[in-house]
Amino acid sequence: MAALLLAAVSVAVTLSLIDYPIGAAWDEIVKLRGVRTGRYAYYHPLFMIDLAQAVALVVHPADLPSLAQLVRVLGALAGGVMVFATFSLARLVLPDLPALAAATATAATPLFTVHARIFKEDIFVAAFLLLALAALIRLLQEPAPHRAILLGLLAGFAAGSKYIGTLFLPFAVIAILFVPTPGPERRWLRAATVAATSIGTFLLIMLPAIRRIERWRRGVNSELAHSIHGHDVPLPLPLTWGVFHLRESLWPGLGTPLLALGLIGLAAPFVAGRERRMPLALIASFALLWYAVHEATPLKPFPDFSRYMLPLVSLLIILGASFIHELLTRFDRRGAVAAIAVLLAAVPALSMSLRINSPDVDPRTIVPPIVAASGARVIFDRYADYERNRRILGINFRPNKGMADIVVTSSLAYDRFALDAAPGPMAAYYRELSSRPHLDVSNGRPTLAYFNPVVRIVALDGSVARLEKIAAEIRAAAPVLAVRLIDPPPKSEQ
Predict the structure, then answer these.
(1) pLDDT tens by residue, 155-210
(2) Is the peptide bond preceding residue 303 cis, with omega within 30 degrees of 0?
(3) Full 3-state SS string of 458-482
(4) Cβ atoms 233, 392 nearer than 8 A
């Protein structure tokens, strides 16, 4: 009951945070169009789209903003499922108190709170993966046909939410075949049942795509190529040394104490009692597998690569709590110390979540009309405002002072090109923009995913006077925004 209440509170909090303009995530409009028209490129599986279409048939949203609110509600509900699934999985290796603490800590992390607000596949696949992992452990502990079918359904839903969710099925089949369980003579039948149910569930979800098989094939091939070659800034393993997501996703997404606890928790299977050793080994193994697969691919798409690590939030917190509990289980069978340790470690994460998600003035709503009214020729980069058809200027279109007086860009666009791996012409363009007089405008809150960017107003014509006038108007319109004028010396003086 407490876990359900916690999940409900998580959903309620998330619902208070979903009223933001369409286009914060640039592909949201593509997904909304797929929900409204049924036309979709199948770059991702269809569970999320199918669900949104079914709910829309009942609710009948009046317009696109109403539909956006509706689908974000579904994301918030998936977040609630993820919180409950965290408790359900944790309860297999922990007493009630630390299991509830693990679910609470999960709900407090920036990685969770931000992605429960967004209509993207990651929150759905994370919830199903946690439920599937719990179902796998139960099947191995007490084999039964209905448990094999349930596991297959959940694995199918995970794959039907996002293609990378298919990673769970071979993991589960290998575990069924090789982990010692009661009734070993039926393990092949159990594995076949899980595989057949999972594949059947996935195909049912993808029925609309099967009817358009050529388009589906193109979508899958596109995603495979994307995974192999990376995004606009490919980050292969030799460049990241295997720590990109650790440093850039998990550290800011969990906070230092929770991440440190989770990393230590990877050793939990080695100190666990016999009855909990197998479940903890499965949790740790899947966490490492998930991390390794995502770290190995060059695909780390800015500005929201951190969403790929969402399932690890729960897994690492559970492992960390288990490590403490296993060390102290003789003296603290209820796990009170482990629960307190996890909750204390989650305090910095909660503080960061509040800073990121609390409602505030968005520079993307204030800056564009002021700059547009300045009389200058203006070109906007993607993420500098909420216009839905902007492109990343540094990739194929690099306006110069002959084309515009001002370029308005955003840290969600230019940050990626500061990396050493950034392609030369793109990185050079944004370096050139930063070398010109510009204003940096922000609400002072930490940036994560698509929220709280710095908006940069670059004077291609070098007019500091115009920037000063724009800065004064921004301060008058939104005094809470931080506006900083940067006038680098000419290159000859540097």
Answers:
(1) 999 999 999 999 999 999 999 999 998 888 899 999 999 999 999 999 999 998 88
(2) yes
(3) EECCCCHHHHHHHHHHHHHHCCCCE
(4) no
Q: Which helix (H) or strand (E) element contains residue 155?
A: helix 145-161
Q: Tell me the C-alpha to C-alpha distance, in Å, between residue 195 and each of 166, 172, 281, 485.
A: 11, 9, 22, 59
351-371 pLDDT, tens per residue?
A: 999 999 988 899 999 999 999
- Identity at 33, one-letter amino acid code: R
Q: Are 10 and 116 in contact (CB under 8 A)?
A: yes
Domain boundaries, the chain: 2-357, 363-493
Distance, CA of 381 to CA of 300 (rounded, Å): 20
462 Cβ neighbours under 8 A, 6+ residues apart: 401, 436, 437
CB atoms near residue 13 (< 10 Å): 18
Of residues 313, 24, 305, 294, the one with CA closest to residue 163: 294
Q: Residue 424, Cβ neighbours under 10 Å: how many?
A: 8
Rounded to a whole number of angstroms, the CA Rg of the chain reads 24
